[in-house]
Amino acid sequence: MLDLLKDYALKRADLLKMEAAEKGVVTASTLTLIILLAIFGIFFLILFNIGIAVLVGSYINNYSYGFLIVAAFYLLVLIILLIAGKSIKNLIANKLLQTFNNPQE
């Protein structure tokens, strides 16, 4: 009977190690994907905004004003985010907690 308990404890410990390793690998791969998406997303946004600024500047025949208009748009977005920051933070926190508590795998 004692041997069965020892065997059970060893198998249970191995199972816990495997589950921890699996969660670590899933977390690392998810983090890697998020970092890659962020890098390429930032490159896209930078180039897209330069293109929009040049396009707006060509319509009004002044490239400097095109960049100024795009910058003013982002200033407006920044002001909105600062005003609504707390509610956005709470919304994101609630969504993350729901995701962590109810994994869909």
Number of domains: 1
Order of helices and strands: HHH
Overall mean confidence score, pLDDT:
89
Sheet-strand content, in percent, reads: under 5%
Q: What's the helical proportion of residues?
A: over 70%
Please count the helical segments: 3
Question: Oligomeric state of the chains?
Answer: single chain
Radius of gyration, whole Å: 25 Å
Number of strands: 0
Task: State the end-to-end distance.
Answer: 37 Å
Poorly predicted runs of 5 or more residues: none
The secondary-structure class comes to mainly alpha
* Approximate shape: elongated
Q: The biggest beta sheet, please?
A: none
Give a short synopsis of this structure.
The chain has 105 residues and is mainly α. The chain has one domain. It is 91% helix and 0% strand.
Can you tell me about this structure?
By secondary structure, the protein is an all-alpha fold. It has three helices and no strands. The chain starts with a helix and ends with a helix.
List the helices and strands and how they pair.
Elements: H1 2-59, H2 63-83, H3 85-101
Descriptive keywords:
single chain, mainly alpha, 0% strand, elongated
